[in-house]
């Protein structure tokens, strides 16, 4: 039986991904709707899979619902879910493999599905830097610098360097209004010692930071479920404080800011973004 | 006893790192240092600043107003050493060393002597602190007084008699650097309610102290003119920030929805918040400073990279304590970058210097807890490894600081002016007119400083374009100096150029074929900086 709250998240996620799909972002004469539609389907599928994965890990309905909801509204997942996006497709399959591994305790199936991951990358994300450039040696200093760049507030909240891959320049991975929950969530992630989530995040971070084209790679997109989970953990933690009127007020204020922030993003994406990319359509038609 | 012994060692170390070759690194006095030095000299000799204002509370300087604390604290040093590098820089060095001592006292109150020693050791050796202690930066003095005021405030939580001292010192710190004007009121707004349980035992003393503190601060808030430097650097006066929002509003026909989404106040708010957050960015703290060569060394962070895990660990562990240490340090760390966020460029290592002490205390606490909790068998190995890593980082920093930094940054430290005026000093009477290029900005203040021009004489006609027969050019972008006569200087420049008895100090790009170069002053990278020429006409 599908949880009604998950149903709402799916409907909301679907509207954000399918509404005026052929118009936003604008299509060039060389664009096709089918790859864009496929990405939207995969993105929606990731929302659902994330719910079930989180439910299995935490056994707390609310964390699962919140994770999938946050994933559905992250600016980067919306942007990538509305264009022909390889990382969106890879992410869906990775989540599916993870889900299979967690659900069925069949060793052969588990092994085969894990072996399937590199193959997935090869077919779905040919721009993944190892596949494109072979092994690339990066100095420790540069690697560290890149990692630090990713972990700056600038990268997380204020800018996106993947403009030529459909990213919005002035919008980061997360909405700025999610910052307090993100901080609280990181604290929770450490306290709860969610090592697997931290490792997943670390791997994505490493691959992205070691990309020779950094910061234009999109490997970090694969960390978006973890980011959504971190924010969800933060929000869930705040629920604990709800018995206090002061905290209820704080939460209400944060939620109002989030609504404004999200609406503002949608307005920009639906109205102004298409004008901003109009002059560059010939160069970014591959993803559009 | 053991702690005191280590403290003395740390203080010696701090003094050494700040004093050693202070005359060569940074390579020369820059604009603000000479302005502070000359104004202190002016106060000492005439009782007034360079413009003739008697014992001012604000020192007008480069269309800005310098706070009086640091200028007045330099006066005794000027009395001893005259107008010199040591007189300008030694007070800053002393403030830097004192900050190490005061941090020890403060952290002893918040934690224990072990964390206190570690904190002071980190402060003694951290690039951020050393950078601003080796030159005459007012901010360094401001941070020192702030640490001392916090020490008394924290002490007053157990012994109320120190409260007045803490509040008065907080008020005094406002006279040293501008960022305190935002930090201190914000801090008190939270400090009083947070520690009300402790403070309510001496309500009268609190009220009297706060009244005294406010009284002490009032002159500053009322005297600062509206056209201070803040108006130049404030993000609220930068039209570029809202230009995109204005464009979008126009596109949306200025509808209600457009005004809601592209609201200028929200755009400013977002910019402010972005600037604020960037002060905690790992790139800012551990890799590149803020890009200003006077604020740090390229490729070396404000803090050492090895400190990062302990900084994070320290914050994590401290959050579990929920005691006064947590409250004081978190308030301090959260409010410290607020003032710096309102101005551009941001993040800014100088304006955010107040952020450094709490970060170092977090690191020291993290380090202390980490060492305490590791297994005894690996404690020795870990401690040795950590010491080696920290030592390597320090050696690397000092190598960069003493070997490469002076060469790379000499122009940013206004190198060359001293050589120019030492040359000019002995030849002033040989020429009818001397012209100094303004390409490197405001040469007049260097002339006053290095020629030790009598302050009373300058106060009679404080012009930035002329001192006796020495004329000064101006930088292309510097066109609004109220003390510069732009019109007459244009004519004068041509006149000097065409006169046979003129000496010109110009930049290489200003040279013309007729110029006869009699001396070239090079920067520390070997590139020509000033050409001293006579005209052939």
Structure description:
- Chain A is mainly alpha-helical and 288 residues long.
- Helix content of chain A is 70%, strand content 0%.
- In chain A, α2 packs parallel to α5 (86-103).
- In chain A, 39% of the residues are buried.
- The mean pLDDT of chain A is 87.
- Chain B is α/β, with parallel strands linked by helices.
- Chain B is built from 25 helices and 8 strands.
- The N and C termini of chain B lie far apart (76 Å).
- The model of chain B has no long low-confidence stretch (mean pLDDT 92).
- The interface between A and B is medium-sized, with 21 and 20 residues.
Please name the defining characteristics of this protein.
heterodimer, A: mainly alpha, B: alpha/beta, two-stranded antiparallel ribbon, 8 strands
Strand content of chain A: under 5%
Sheet with the most strands, sense and barrel status of chain A: none
Q: Tell me how many strands of chain A there are.
A: 0
Separation of termini of chain A?
Answer: 37 Å
The largest β sheet of chain B comes out as: 6 strands, mixed
If you compute it from the alpha carbons, what radius of gyration of chain B comes out, rounded to the nearest whole angstrom?
A: 26 Å
Structural class of chain B: alpha/beta
- What global shape of chain B is seen? globular
N-to-C span of chain B: 76 Å
Oligomer: heterodimer
| Order of strands in the sheet with most strands of chain B | 4-5-3-6-8-7
The share of residues in extended strands of chain B comes to 5-15%
The pair of chains with the biggest contact is: A-B, 21 and 20 residues
Helix content of chain B: 55-70%
Please specify the SSE layout and strand pairing.
The complex is a heterodimer of chains A (288) and B (537).
Chain A (H helix, E strand, L loop, with lengths): L3 H15 L14 H26 L2 H13 L1 H7 L4 H18 L3 H18 L4 H5 L6 H11 L2 H6 L20 H13 L3 H15 L14 H17 L4 H34 L2 H4 L4
Chain B lengths: L1 H18 L11 H16 L12 E3 L2 E3 L1 H14 L3 H26 L2 H13 L1 H7 L4 H19 L6 H11 L6 H15 L1 H4 L3 H21 L6 H4 L5 H13 L4 H6 L2 H15 L3 H7 L18 H13 L4 H12 L2 H5 L13 H18 L2 H34 L7 H9 L7 E4 L6 H8 L4 H6 L5 E2 L2 E3 L13 H12 L4 E5 L8 E8 L5 E8 L2
Parallel strand pairs in B: 3-5, 3-6
Antiparallel strand pairs in B: 1-2, 4-5, 6-8, 7-8
């Amino acid at each position: 039986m599908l949880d009604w709250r998950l149903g709402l998240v799916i409907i909301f996620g679907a509207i954000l991904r399918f509404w005026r799909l052929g118009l936003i972002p604008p299509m060039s004469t060389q664009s096709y709707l089918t790859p864009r539609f496929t990405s939207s389907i995969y993105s929606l599928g990731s929302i659902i899979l994330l719910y079930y994965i989180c439910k299995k890990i935490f056994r707390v309905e609310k964390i699962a619902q919140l994770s999938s909801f946050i994933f559905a509204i992250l600016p980067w997942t919306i942007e990538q879910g509305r264009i022909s996006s390889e990382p969106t497709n890879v992410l869906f399959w990775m989540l599916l493999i993870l889900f299979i591994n967690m659900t069925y305790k069949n060793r052969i199936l588990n092994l085969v599905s894990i072996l399937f991951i590199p193959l997935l990358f090869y077919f779905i994300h040919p721009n993944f830097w190892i596949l494109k450039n072979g092994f690339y040696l990066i100095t420790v200093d540069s690697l560290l610098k890149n990692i630090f760049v990713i972990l700056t507030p600038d990268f997380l909240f204020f800018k996106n360097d993947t403009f030529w891959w459909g990213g919005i320049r002035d919008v980061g991975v997360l909405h700025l209004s999610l910052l307090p929950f993100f901080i609280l969530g990181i604290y929770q992630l450490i306290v709860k010692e969610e090592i697997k989530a931290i490792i997943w995040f670390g791997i994505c971070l490493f691959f992205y930071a070691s990309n020779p084209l950094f910061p234009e790679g999109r490997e970090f997109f694969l960390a978006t479920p973890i980011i959504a989970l971190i924010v969800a953990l933060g929000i869930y933690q705040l629920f604990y404080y709800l018995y206090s009127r002061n905290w209820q007020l704080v939460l209400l204020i944060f939620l109002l800011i989030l609504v404004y922030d999200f609406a503002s993003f949608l307005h920009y994406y639906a109205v102004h973004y298409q004008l901003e990319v109009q002059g560059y359509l010939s160069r970014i038609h591959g993803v559009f | 006893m053991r702690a005191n012994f280590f403290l003395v060692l740390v203080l010696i170390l701090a003094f050494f790192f700040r004093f050693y070759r202070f005359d060569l690194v940074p390579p020369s006095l820059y604009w603000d240092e000479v302005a502070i030095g000359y104004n202190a000299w002016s106060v000492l000799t005439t009782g007034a600043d360079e413009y003739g204002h008697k014992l001012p509370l604000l020192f007008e300087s480069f269309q800005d107003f310098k706070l009086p604390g640091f200028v007045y604290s330099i006066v005794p040093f000027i009395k001893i050493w005259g107008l010199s590098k040591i007189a300008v820089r030694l007070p800053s060095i002393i403030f830097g060393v004192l900050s190490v001592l005061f941090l020890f006292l403060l952290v002893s109150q918040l934690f224990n002597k072990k964390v206190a020693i570690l904190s002071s050791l980190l402060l003694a050796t951290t690039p951020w602190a050393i950078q601003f202690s080796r030159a005459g930066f007012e901010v360094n003095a401001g941070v020192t007084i702030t640490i001392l005021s916090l020490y008394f405030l924290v002490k007053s939580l157990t012994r109320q008699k120190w409260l007045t001292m803490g509040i008065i010192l907080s008020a005094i710190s406002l006279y040293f650097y501008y960022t305190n004007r935002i930090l201190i009121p914000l801090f008190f707004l939270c400090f009083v309610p947070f520690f009300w349980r402790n403070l309510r035992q001496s309500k009268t003393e609190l009220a009297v102290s706060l009244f005294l503190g406010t009284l002490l601060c009032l002159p500053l808030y009322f005297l600062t003119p509206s056209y201070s430097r803040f108006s130049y650097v404030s993000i609220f006066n930068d039209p570029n920030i809202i230009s995109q929002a204005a464009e979008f509003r126009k596109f949306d026909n200025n509808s209600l929805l457009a005004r809601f989404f592209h609201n200028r106040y929200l755009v400013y708010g977002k910019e402010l918040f972005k600037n604020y957050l960037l002060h905690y960015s790992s790139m800012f703290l551990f890799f590149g400073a803020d890009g200003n060569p006077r604020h740090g060394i390229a490729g070396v962070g404000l803090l050492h990279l090895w400190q990062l895990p302990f900084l994070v660990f320290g914050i994590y562990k401290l959050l579990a304590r929920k005691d006064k240490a947590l409250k004081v340090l978190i308030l301090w760390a959260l409010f410290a970058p607020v003032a710096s966020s309102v101005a551009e460029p941001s993040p800014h290592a100088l304006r955010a210097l107040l952020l450094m002490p709490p970060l170092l205390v977090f690191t020291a606490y993290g380090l202390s807890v980490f060492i305490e909790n590791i297994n005894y068998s690996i404690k020795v190995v870990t401690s040795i490894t950590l010491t080696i890593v920290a030592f390597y980082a320090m050696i690397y920093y000092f190598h960069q600081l003493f070997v490469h930094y002076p060469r790379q940054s000499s122009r940013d430290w206004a190198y060359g002016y001293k050589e120019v005026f030492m040359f000019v000093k002995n030849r002033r009477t040989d020429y009818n007119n001397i012209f100094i290029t303004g390409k490197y900005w405001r040469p007049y203040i260097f002339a006053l400083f290095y020629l030790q021009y009598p302050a009373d004489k300058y106060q009679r006609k404080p012009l930035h374009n002329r001192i006796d027969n020495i004329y000064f050019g101006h930088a292309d972008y510097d066109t609004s100096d109220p003390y510069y006569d732009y019109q007459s200087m244009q004519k004068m420049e041509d006149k000097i150029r065409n006169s046979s008895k003129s000496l010109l100090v110009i930049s290489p790009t200003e040279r013309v074929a007729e110029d006869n170069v009699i001396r070239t002053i090079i920067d520390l990278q070997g590139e020509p900086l000033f050409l001293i020429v006579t005209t052939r006409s």
